[in-house]
Amino acid sequence: MSRRLSTGIDVLDRKLDGGLPAGSVVAFSAPPASQAELLLYEFTSSRPTLYLSTDRDEAAVIETLERTPGPTGSPDVRHVPGDAPLDHSQRLFRRLSEDSNLVVDPVDLLERQETSRYRNFLADLRNHLANTRSVAILHCLDGRSVPDARDVTEHVADVVFQLHTEYSGDTVETRLAVPKFRGGRALSETIKLELAESVRIDTSRDIA
């Protein structure tokens, strides 16, 4: 089995046979109104992380991290401007050190660039991740306006996480699906999450 890197969530790591394969690109799809950032922060707490924000400046992201009750680590937060975002992101991720995380939050701005240039960006990213034995988490907003290149992102990705939120009466239920896991095994069942101040997994049925 290839070397695995922790997601920051022990129960999820066990379900994934140890975590995420080093060198992987992860597409993490979630509704904009969900608490998806809490899951991203679990990743940032697991190892050194370069956190690229495309819609908030560094100060806003850092303030959110500081106000988050759960562990967040100390990611290197950088804002990606709307002018030439692929070039800017590429220059930044090439500084990624070994055994690290790259988080792009969200990746939508990059997906809206010219498709062939975006494909080249992903190919260069995969190559750098393989060389540094790192993992990239691309936060994909599953909202009202999904970029046309989302199919490209999910096809290139080695692992796909999909966060689903359901409303039943006065309760909100959040589940995580892992329908794609290249080089491993996708999960046949969803995982029930509790996203409040931090990420907790309901183990009453899913985990023995």
Explain what the structure shows.
By secondary structure, the chain is α/β, with parallel strands linked by helices. It has a single domain (4-201), classed as 3-Layer(aba) Sandwich (Rossmann fold), CATH 3.40.50. It is 31% helix and 29% strand. It has seven helices and eleven strands. The protein has helices spanning 10-15, 36-46, 58-67, 85-93, 108-111, 115-132, 150-156; strands at 4-5, 20-21, 25-30, 49-53, 76-79, 101-105, 135-141, 159-168, 171-181, 191-195, 199-201. The strands form two sheets. The chain has a nine-stranded mixed beta sheet with strand order 5-4-6-7-3-8-9-10-11, sandwiched between helices. It has a two-stranded antiparallel ribbon with strand order 1-2. α4 runs parallel beside α6 (115-132). The radius of gyration is 16 Å and the shape is globular.
Question: Can you give the mean pLDDT?
Answer: 93
What is the CATH architecture assignment?
3-Layer(aba) Sandwich
Provide the structure class: alpha/beta
- Secondary-structure element string: EHEEHEHEHEHHEHEEEE
Low-confidence stretches: none
Domain module count: 1
* Ends distance: 23 Å
List how many beta strands DSSP finds: 11
Q: How are the strands of the largest sheet arranged?
A: 5-4-6-7-3-8-9-10-11
Discrete helix count: 7
CATH third-level topology: Rossmann fold
